[in-house]
Amino acid sequence: MGIKSIVVSIGIIVLGVNSLLADEFPVTVEHKYGSTTIVSEPSRVISLSYQNHDNLLALGVQPIAIRYWYGDFEFGVWPWAEELLGSEKPVILKGDINIEQIAELKPDLIEAMWSGITQDQYDLLSKIAPVVPPLKGYEDYGMPWEKIAAETGVIVGKSEEADAKVEEIESRMAAIRKNHPSWEGKSAAVAYYWSDAPGAYTSSDIRPQFLANLGLITPKKIDDVSGPNAFAIKLSPEDLSPIDTDIVIWFIEERNVETVKNLALRPTLNAYKEGREIYADPTLASAFSHGSLLSLPYVLDQMVPLIESAIDGDPLTLVSSTEEIGLLAE
């Protein structure tokens, strides 16, 4: 299923759930900086999370401003979400959080569950409107995709719709996991190359958390390197052993493919030797990283066949994306 078909299907679902009863307000949310009470259903929502505008759009909420992450898209949203933007396009917030700019937009809710805002920023933003940072018990960028989606529903008065959409994706993942018992307990590393060094995401990050729903686990060695609450680690090119896993999924820009290809110790990885590396192209990597109600169906469509090829037990089976980009072992 392509991105356009997914968006159309989601639009139909949105229309079908409009008859659900709206949540009652006020709503109080317990989070890492205390608690926030939202008195009434918000109508002017700013999303400071780098990816949660997706979930707002999936629930039929048009944010008045969104945080720019990356990508060359005019309104800051990727293809799976563009068609859900209304006629009033959001303001794109680039760079560091600008308190004055946000105040001028007169929001009645500031969503910030995947934003990295500090206590000081939270305090200042709270003078403008209710602010929702990561929930209690979670650090920056540590909330699982389903928690973010469900809580987004709560704070905008659409919890039933959010829960239904989460359940739909979870049911699909459960079916995939059931149909692939050989994946259970296999180790997986989501690796990248950034700032002139390789790295990997820990089990606290949204990407490995998603893979865990399919039965694939992040090795303890990655978490041991990271330290408490870290969502990613930087690796030394002289020691790639933390990502010596059953499969390695590479999130790398095309300009870094040759660099990764030529890492001196990459040939020591079993995933390299046995053809179990997966290259996630920019759209797939971004969909994976957004981890949203809109992007995850696309991830499942694209990623499952790649994983099937990577860990089918036959080293001669080529992973199509890895072959196309030229990352296969020589």
Please explain how this structure is put together:
This protein has 330 residues and is of the alpha/beta class. The protein is 37% helix and 14% strand. It has a five-stranded parallel β-sheet with strand order 5-4-3-6-7, with no helix packed on it. It has a five-stranded mixed β-sheet with strand order 10-9-8-11-12, with helices on both faces. Strands 1-2 form a two-stranded antiparallel ribbon. A hairpin with a 2-residue loop joins strand 8 (188-194) and strand 9 (197-201). The longest helix is centred in the middle third of the chain and has 21 residues, at 159-179. 42% of the residues are buried. Residues 12-19 have low confidence and may be disordered.
Q: In terms of structural class, how would the helical and strand content be classed?
A: alpha/beta
- Contiguous uncertain segments of 5+ residues: 12-19
Order of helices and strands: HEEEHEHEHEHEHHEEHHEEHHEHHH
Quick check: average pLDDT?
91
Distance between the termini: 33 Å
Cα Rg: 20 Å
- Percent of residues in β-strands: 5-15%
Quaternary organization? single chain
> Sheet bearing the most strands, described?
5 strands, parallel
Taken from the alpha-carbon principal axes, the silhouette is globular
Helicity range: 25-40%
Q: What is the tally of beta strands?
A: 12
* Largest beta sheet: strand ordering: 5-4-3-6-7
Number of helices: 14
